[in-house]
Write a structure and sequence with these properties.
This protein is mainly α. The chain has one domain. It contains 8 helices and no strands. The radius of gyration is 19 Å and the shape is flat.
């Protein structure tokens, strides 16, 4: 109960800090003050995750509620970086709202704290595997948001093909982390279950997701590419990513998955 009360206080304060930062970003010409509040929110959430890690005796990454804390942290961090570099207020708004949504969702469904950890999750590969995946998912979500905005701009005849360069950079980083996630996952599987790959439903969808983003990267190399198709491929890839993240848990084959803890 004490853990939940502490979380309510932390989540509530971060939600408030984030909203203040967004409000200041839209009304203040100088971005220093919004960045001060954003930095406060990032450090406060990071400190809470660190304390939770220490009290639980392991990284808080087992339940969906725990991983939502990491998504909230990385989305707030990435949104702040993009605002600092390019002053994308709409990206900052999205990042803060998604961060607040994840934190509020954990208040409604308080399944964050699970001190038990099955033997398979006690591998030292588990933490880097999850962290790089969460960071990759966060990067891809921002890239997908750019894609939706791009399709809207095409409809309004305001599309600038140079915007694809920003999307490319986000996908390059996200794809690199996806790749590391698969490699770390294979190393973890070898240590925990004795084999690198078993075509488990989670592994299969992770591969499908990786291949979809690989398709995007290769399609971008075509000279006669269509920008609309490019953006649609990226959106479809993100749908595959969402299926890999939590959608696969609802598939019949997931009942026998080694990734159901």
């Amino acid at each position: 109960m004490d853990n939940l009360i502490t979380y309510y206080i932390v989540a509530g304060s971060i939600v408030l800090i984030g909203l203040i930062a967004v409000l200041l970003a839209f009304i203040e010409k100088d971005k220093k003050l919004p960045l001060v509040f954003l930095t406060m929110g990032i450090l406060w959430l990071g400190f809470y995750i660190g304390v939770l890690w220490y009290k639980m005796g392991h990284a808080p990454m087992k339940t969906l509620g725990e991983t939502r804390l990491w998504y909230a942290f990385f989305l707030l961090f990435i949104g702040s970086i993009l605002y600092l570099r390019w002053e994308y207020k709409w990206i900052l708004l999205f990042s803060v709202l998604m961060t607040d949504l994840f934190l509020i969702f954990n208040i409604i469904y308080p399944e964050n704290f699970d001190t038990s950890l099955m033997p398979a999750l006690q591998s030292y590969w588990f933490v880097p595997h999850v962290i790089v995946y969460i960071f990759a998912y966060s990067m891809m979500s921002i890239a997908t948001l750019f894609s939706f905005k791009g399709l809207y701009q095409m409809r309004k005849k305001r599309w600038n093909t140079q915007n694809l360069n920003i999307i490319d950079n986000l996908v390059y980083i996200g794809f690199a982390f996806l790749t590391f996630g698969i490699i770390f996952g294979a190393m973890w599987a070898k240590e925990a279950w004795g084999h690198y790959w078993s075509f488990d439903p989670k592994e299969t969808w992770a591969l499908i997701t990786w291949l979809m983003y690989l398709l995007y990267l290769h399609y971008r190399k075509f000279k006669n590419q269509n920008d609309r198709i490019t953006l649609i491929i990226l959106i479809i890839a993100f749908l595959m990513l969402l299926t890999c993240w939590f959608g696969v848990n609802y598939l019949p084959a997931a009942a026998k998955s080694i990734h159901v803890y």
